[in-house]
Automatic annotation (TrEMBL):
<dbReference type="Pfam" id="PF13450">
    <property type="entry name" value="NAD_binding_8"/>
</dbReference>
<dbReference type="GO" id="GO:0008767">
    <property type="term" value="F:UDP-galactopyranose mutase activity"/>
</dbReference>
<dbReference type="InterPro" id="IPR015899">
    <property type="entry name" value="UDP-GalPyranose_mutase_C"/>
</dbReference>
<keyword id="KW-0274">FAD</keyword>
<protein>
    <submittedName>
        <fullName>UDP-galactopyranose mutase</fullName>
    </submittedName>
</protein>
<keyword id="KW-0413">Isomerase</keyword>
<dbReference type="GO" id="GO:0050660">
    <property type="term" value="F:flavin adenine dinucleotide binding"/>
</dbReference>
<dbReference type="Pfam" id="PF03275">
    <property type="entry name" value="GLF"/>
</dbReference>
<feature type="domain" description="UDP-galactopyranose mutase C-terminal">
    <location>
        <begin position="151"/>
        <end position="362"/>
    </location>
</feature>
<comment type="similarity">
    <text>Belongs to the UDP-galactopyranose/dTDP-fucopyranose mutase family.</text>
</comment>
<keyword id="KW-0285">Flavoprotein</keyword>
<dbReference type="InterPro" id="IPR004379">
    <property type="entry name" value="UDP-GALP_mutase"/>
</dbReference>
<dbReference type="GO" id="GO:0005829">
    <property type="term" value="C:cytosol"/>
</dbReference>
Length: 386
């Protein structure tokens, strides 16, 4: 075997550990991925007709306050000065999100000061004072009051979960951010932006090391290819970033996920929404939100097609085994099951489980890079030193 480490999954966890292993330990690394591209869920491609960069698995915006991660990613790409802002359509009007003083004053046709708005919302949230909300509906009302909850949260959440919020556990939300000023920057992080020449160029630079090789369209569980689970067992360290329950042949049961279906629409317009992300918080629109990819990169405007634009509508639903697992559902039952798998994983010789699928967790990109840097330092580097 001519490699020192096999990495299953070319997502950000896998790319980061591969890059670190080659650079810091001089390791020969083979990355395999069942898909036909690198980048995992953060992969994007250029749409020839419109000039938009399409994020194939849903909109990906980079943001972080972690200095180590920011320094690390800047080795491989420059970032644009894109600042994420989201709007929502409700009752035939467009409002800014997250809910802020602009949203509140537009909604109540008022000119409240920050203190007045705060007092108003506290009063409305007091409707259920003294009760301990058991379902998401009551929790939402107790956090921001009924009017704002019902306008902006209730139906959006019902679409996300395909379930009436009064039947969802209150534990799904711990807080609903409301800002009592006009700041509608979506993220609060120190740094944010999009990779200047696209996600794929960034990811290619991470593995531009002759010691790293990649096999695409290669399934770790396919016994017909040489980098499969049984052939590698105990022979070489493996970093596994696929689904943890799949690794153990679902022997304890299946972890539950939500997925998203994307419906593409093309319009004979330069700009359809005037913003990159438009949420739809009413039940008459079946999708939760729509992404207009051209608007993520205003700095490329000149080079884009001014006659056409592309929009992806997002429809959320529970995932079956053949679907892309996107958001862990994370009920108490799921967490118990995951902990059982985690014990099996801990006993697996020379296999490190990482990333969102390998640890049944939702991570943003900066979080998964951070966890990969730490996993390399603490778990993978000692294996390579042997
Ligand atoms: P990831 O899923 O990217 O990679 C795992 C890889 O393993 C995949 O490429 C898969 O094909 C491969 N694999 C699985 N099984 C295999 C097998 N049997 N054999 C071989 N390969 C196998 N984050 C953020 O910071 N900003 C954002 O705006 C968003 N937006 C966003 C939208 C949506 C809809 C989702 C679902 C997620 C986001 N994210 C995000 C999160 C982001 O996608 C996430 O942090 C990274 O993709 C996680 O990288 P991983 O390497 O853990 O998994």
């Amino acid at each position: 075997m001519d490699v020192d480490l096999v990495v299953v999954g070319a997502g950000l966890f896998g790319l980061t550990v591969a890059q670190q292993a080659a650079e810091l330990a001089g390791a020969r690394v083979r990355i395999i991925d069942v898909r036909d591209h690198i980048g995992g869920n953060a992969y994007s491609y250029m749409d020839e007709e419109t000039g938009a960069e399409i994020h194939k698995y849903g909109a990906h915006l980079f943001h972080t306050s972690n200095q180590r991660v920011w320094d690390y990613v800047n080795r491989f790409t420059e970032f644009t000065d894109y600042t994420h802002r989201v709007y929502t359509t409700h009752g035939g009007e467009v409002y800014p999100l997250p809910i802020n003083l602009g949203t509140i004053n537009q909604f109540f046709h008022a000119h409240y000061s920050p203190a007045q708005a705060q007092a108003l919302i506290a009063g409305q949230a007091g409707e259920l004072a003294g009760t301990d909300p058991e379902n998401l509906n009551d929790k939402g009302i107790s956090l921001i009051g009924r009017p704002l909850y019902e306008a902006f949260i209730k139906n959006y959440t019902a679409k996300q979960w395909q379930t009436d919020p009064s039947e969802l556990p209150a534990s799904i939300i711990s807080r609903l951010p409301v800002r009592f000023n006009y700041d509608n920057r979506y993220f609060k992080d120190t740094w944010e932006g999009l990779p200047k020449d696209g996600y794929t160029a960034w990811f290619e630079r991470m593995i531009a090391d002759p010691r790293i090789s990649v096999s695409l369209s290669t399934d770790f569980f396919d016994a017909g290819q040489p980098w499969n689970r049984d052939a590698l067992a105990g022979r070489v360290p493996v970093v596994y970033t696929g689904p943890v329950d799949r690794y153990f042949d679902y022997r304890l049961g299946e972890l539950k996920w939500r997925t998203v279906d994307f419906k593409e629409r093309r319009y004979d317009e330069d700009d359809h929404f005037g913003c990159p992300v438009m949420n739809f918080s009413d039940p008459d629109v079946a999708y939760t939100r729509a992404i207009e990819f051209k608007n993520f990169n205003p700095e490329r405007r000149e080079a884009q097609n001014h006659e056409r634009t592309v929009v992806w509508e997002e429809y959320s639903r529970f995932a079956g085994r053949g679907d892309e697992p996107y958001y862990p559902i994370n009920t108490a039952q799921d967490r118990t099951l995951y902990n059982q798998y985690r014990q099996l994983a801990a006993a697996e010789p020379q296999v490190i489980f990482g990333g969102r699928l390998g640890t049944y967790a939702y991570y943003d990109m900066h979080q998964v890079i951070n966890s990969a840097l730490i996993a390399y330092d603490k778990q993978i580097s000692p294996l390579l030193a042997k």
